[in-house]
Amino acid sequence: MSTEGQTMREGTRIFVTGSCEGLEQLTEALDRHPEIQLVGRSQTVREGASALAGGHLQAVLHATRASELPEDDLASIREYTRAPIILLASGEASLLLDAALEADVADVMLLPQLPENVVFAVRKASHNGRTGHAGAGGRVLTVFSPKGGTGKTVMSTNLATAFAKHGGKKTLLLDLDLQFGDAAIMLGIEPDKTIYDLVVAPGELDPEKLAGYTTRHSSGVDVLPAPVRPEDAELVTEAKLSRLLEVAKESYEMIVVDTSPFFHGPMLATLDRTDELLLLCGLDVPTIKNVRLSLQTLELLSFPTERIRVVLNRANTNVGMKRGEVEAALEQRVRFEIPSDRAVPLAVNRGNPAVVSDPKADFSRAVREMAKSLQPAAPAQAKKRWRGALAKA
Ligand SMILES: Nc1ncnc2c1ncn2[C@@H]1O[C@H](COP(=O)(O)OP(=O)(O)O)[C@@H](O)[C@H]1O
Ligand SMILES: [Mg+2]
Questions:
Q1: CA 67, CA 221: separation in Å to the nearest integer?
Q2: Which of 28, 115, 265, 299 lies in the 20 to 30 Å Cα band around 203?
Q3: What is the pTM of this model?
Q4: What's the pLDDT score for residue 178?
């Protein structure tokens, strides 16, 4: 990309919180270090909440003066981010070292340290955090496109349905088109609770509470719809959303997220938890231009390129442009092609996803194939179900 190098700040994205002897000098040195990008610094975990939740961090450095493990601080950090945590301590810390072995921390370093040592620990922790990512709980699949009408909601509702019905996966569909979400309408359900009710409800969120706010579709998908009133969208904060995704990963195998065409706060918090980003493109120049810009933005946000899957929707439309031209313009491979199909608008208006209402349609077959290759290795029973579903069509 041509802007690379001028606008992009490289380096592992870290956040420093807490306090201990020698921390200020170390933080300054890290801030100057070319391999580190210091996203921010706070005295307490709570003060750093929004950066921790939405900062796309690759590591969190938490400093403590205590000689014991700061369990409460670690738990608060985990409310906001899954990034690996490195504990920094000064003074007598033998108790802390023992307890840290059992705790969810990537490393402990006693200050003073050479900044180079800390940089190495940060990079190692971030590397391990990344490779270990997919194994931790359910898989978050985010469907995004910078343009309205590209088919995000059609794709997310049909994919979620395919995961639940044909893949036998416990699936949540989360509608994060917070102002004008229509996932519930496309599924033909009328939920009486939305994500708004969930975030304003008092008390901590846990899997049991989440279950009380979702609505089951006949395919087996649990749906958490967008707020009914557009003005309620702003109450869905980044911190609330981060926690929601954490909990969803505990209770579901697949979490499909429908989005709006913006990189706003909730989207950034979602990207932080996204295992696979389906970036929807079409065969028209304005959409391609905007998808290209989105790829640049994702790069600036340090979103890992290997998690991006470009999906070409309405791929068979004859508009004087081909897949190869899209790939050249985006400098990215198209991973999935989904055909334009009359079955889709018919299914939308009936409020029943095409993969179930019209399983033989070309669109439905393509979506099921895509779902199959996106979900983690299936157990034998699910494989049989897929075979049945694909053979029928
Ligand atoms: N592959 C397709 N074939 C036919 N129609 C499609 C296809 N994908 C999307 N559409 C139509 O485009 C409309 C907009 O899709 P939608 O999913 O609401 O877009 P978005 O959520 O990106 O704004 C839908 O009502 C649907 O009828
Ligand atoms: Mg939509």
A1: 47
A2: 265
A3: 0.70
A4: 96
Give residue 383's pLDDT: 61
Q: Which ligand is nearest to the CA of 350?
A: 1
Separation CA 214–CA 210 (nearest Å): 7
Is the shortest distance between the CB of 365 and ligand 1 below 6 Å? Answer: no
- DSSP-derived secondary structure letter, 261: S
pLDDT for the residue numbered 8: 45
Domains in the chain (CATH in brackets) are 12-131 (3.40.50.2300), 136-392 (3.40.50.300)
Asked if residue 144 has its Cβ within 6 Å of ligand 1, the reply is no
Determine the pLDDT at residue 133. Answer: 44
Instruction: Give the CA distances from residue 99 to residues 69, 94, 125, 260, 385, in Å, rounded to whole numbers and listed in that order.
Output: 6, 9, 18, 43, 46
Alpha-carbon span 39 to 56, nearest angstrom: 9
Residues 6+ apart with CB under 8 A from 225: 175, 181, 183, 184, 191, 194, 195, 215
Mean pLDDT by 10 residues, the chain (393 residues): 42 95 96 95 95 88 93 89 91 82 88 94 81 64 97 98 94 97 97 96 92 96 96 93 93 96 93 95 96 96 91 92 94 96 97 97 97 74 65 60
Separation of 377 CA from ligand 2 center, angstroms? Answer: 29
Atom 2 in ligand 1: which residue has the minimum CA distance? 340
Give the whole-angstrom CA distance, residue 70 versus residue 175. 36
Cα 340 to averaged position of ligand 1 atoms, centre (Å):
9
The answer, yes or no, to whether any atom of ligand 1 lies below 6 A from the CB of 348, is: yes
CA atoms within 13 A on the CB side of 181: 32
- Name the residue of 267, 344, 363 whose CB sits within 8 Å of the most ligand 1 atoms, as the mutation to test its pocket: 344
**pLDDT for residue 95:** 82
What is the per-residue pLDDT for 55? Answer: 81
> Which runs of E-coded beta strand occur in the chain?
12-18, 36-42, 59-64, 85-90, 107-111, 139-144, 171-176, 215-216, 222-224, 254-259, 276-281, 308-313, 334-338
- The first and second tokens of residue 15, run together, are 């956040």
Query: How far does residue 120's CA lie from ligand 1's centre (Å)?
Result: 47
Going by CA atoms, what residue is nearest to atom 27 of ligand 1?
A: 345
Cα(366) to centroid of ligand 1, in Å? 15
CA angle at 297 for the pair 173 and 310, rounded to the nearest 5°? 55
**If you search the block for the tokens 């840290």, which residue do you land on?**
100
> Is the beta carbon of 150 within 6 A of some atom in ligand 1?
yes
